[in-house]
């Protein structure tokens, strides 16, 4: 593989289609860096470099560069330990509570209630991230009341992350439900101390750039993976579909996929067999609109 008329060392050279960007490689016979001896140039010499993408050669890639907090990185990841072949005619969302995520429960702004399955989970702070009734990005903190119900401050259109924000871990599973229909919209599992939900909604006033996503399933199992995206006022459409079998599946966007404000994103899975576990994750660059 040639790089500016020089060659990668054959001992580290890989096919271009499989070479990982960011790899540390040895470059040989690079005429741009000849040695100098006695004031006179000599033969090309070997050196090392980090392989990067040529961003200028990617048509359509235009991401404005801003200072924080106008630009930030978002990673969403989920796990479903009990995927079945079909649930009510639909594939299931990759999130810890299982089943199909109840997006319709948050069609209108909701009050969220939180409770634990353990009576000892009192005076433990939980941080919640999501969107308020104006689709704005918000973070709130609520104190657990054990098996009694606590109310999360504010009104919520989306919740996509929650975690234990304290020195004391929870000893039970923590569940978030809507006050009107009692629909489960988030869950913190005891083993994780954090929600695991491969869903996200782009906040108002921002554009998100999807850079990659990945998934894997149980050993000796397979799954049909879907990246489903719903633009505001539209329906969920499959934007990528792949068959995942044993080995992890990773898709990188050479040209990052822009997603407008209020766009919903989720990863879903439909295995051939029942009782299959799967994980899914995706990365976003979130940039404030001008």
Description:
This protein has strands at 2-3, 6-8, 24-30, 36-37, 40-41, 45-50, 71-83, 92-93, 112-116, 122-132, 137-145, 150-151, 156-164, 174-178, 184-188, 199-201, 206-217, 222-230, 237-245, 249-259, 264-271, 276-288. With 290 residues, it is mainly beta. The chain folds into three domains: 2-52, no CATH class; 58-100 and 197-290, Jelly Rolls (Sandwich); 102-195, no CATH class. The strands form six sheets. Strands 8, 16, 18, 19 and 21 form a five-stranded antiparallel beta sheet that branches. Strands 1-2-3-6 form a four-stranded antiparallel beta sheet, with no helix packed on it. Strand 10 and strand 11 form a beta hairpin. The two termini are 41 Å apart. 28% of the residues are buried.
Query: How would the global form be characterised?
Result: globular
**Terminus-to-terminus distance:** 41 Å
Helix content percent band: under 10%
Number of helices: 0
Report on the biggest sheet: 5 strands, antiparallel
Structural class of the secondary elements? Answer: mainly beta
CATH fold call of the largest domain: Jelly Rolls
Q: Please give the domain count.
A: 3
CATH class of the largest domain: Mainly Beta
Which radius of gyration do the C-alpha atoms yield?
A: 24 Å
Mean pLDDT: 85
CATH architecture of the largest domain: Sandwich
Strand content: over 45%
**SSE string:** EEEEEEEEEEEEEEEEEEEEEE
Would you count the extended β strands for me? 22
Low-confidence stretches: 1-22, 52-60
Short description:
It is built from no helices and 22 strands. With 290 residues, it is mostly beta strands.
